[in-house]
């Protein structure tokens, strides 16, 4: 798979960011950290955990088209096989902690992007 452009989110580097940062329960920072995709909705809905939102495939498709992004890569959400595609493969969740908290039997996923922007996903099994 060759990508023209992609966006990686979950954490960031910025000279202007002062650490540690207290995460508010609402606003841009909370939304970036706690919002999740949901196959069963359209648009945006408030998350059941009362921080961030859930969003439908339509949100991702419209955002990618408007921003000319081929793929959004995100983390932070347990997925059974280490990775999971969403919104016609315009968003992928990569979760790299196998057997998370010893409560899930999930695999770990690792995304490798080479200098030509070719992507490979590897799965790692817990011991």
TrEMBL record:
Q: Where is the signal peptide?
A: 1-16
The reactions it catalyses are: O-phospho-L-seryl-[protein] + H2O = L-seryl-[protein] + phosphate; O-phospho-L-threonyl-[protein] + H2O = L-threonyl-[protein] + phosphate
Residue ranges of domain Serine/threonine specific protein phosphatases in the record? 1-127
InterPro entries membership: Calcineurin-like_PHP, Metallo-depent_PP-like, PP1_catalytic_subunit, Ser/Thr-sp_prot-phosphatase
Pfam families named among the record's database cross-references: Metallophos
Q: The organism sits in which domain of life?
A: Eukaryota
What are the protein's UniProt keywords? Hydrolase, Manganese, Metal-binding, Protein phosphatase, Signal
Task: State the EC number(s).
Answer: 3.1.3.16
Q: What is this protein called?
A: protein-serine/threonine phosphatase
List the source organism.
Answer: Trichinella zimbabwensis
Per UniProt, what is the name of the gene that codes for the protein in this document?
NPP2
């Amino acid at each position: 798979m060759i990508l023209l452009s992609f966006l990686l989110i979950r954490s960031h580097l910025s000279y202007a960011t002062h650490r540690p940062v207290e995460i508010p329960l609402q606003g841009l920072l909370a939304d970036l950290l706690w919002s999740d995709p949901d196959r069963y909705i359209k648009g945006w809905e408030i998350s059941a955990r009362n921080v961030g939102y859930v969003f439908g495939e339509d949100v991702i498709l419209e955002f990618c088209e408007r921003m000319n992004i081929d793929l959004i890569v995100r983390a932070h959400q347990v997925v059974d096989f280490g990775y999971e595609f969403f919104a016609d493969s315009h968003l992928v969740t990569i979760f790299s902690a196998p057997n998370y908290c010893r409560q899930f039997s999930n695999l770990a996923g690792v995304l490798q992007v080479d200098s030509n922007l070719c992507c490979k996903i590897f799965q790692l099994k817990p011991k």
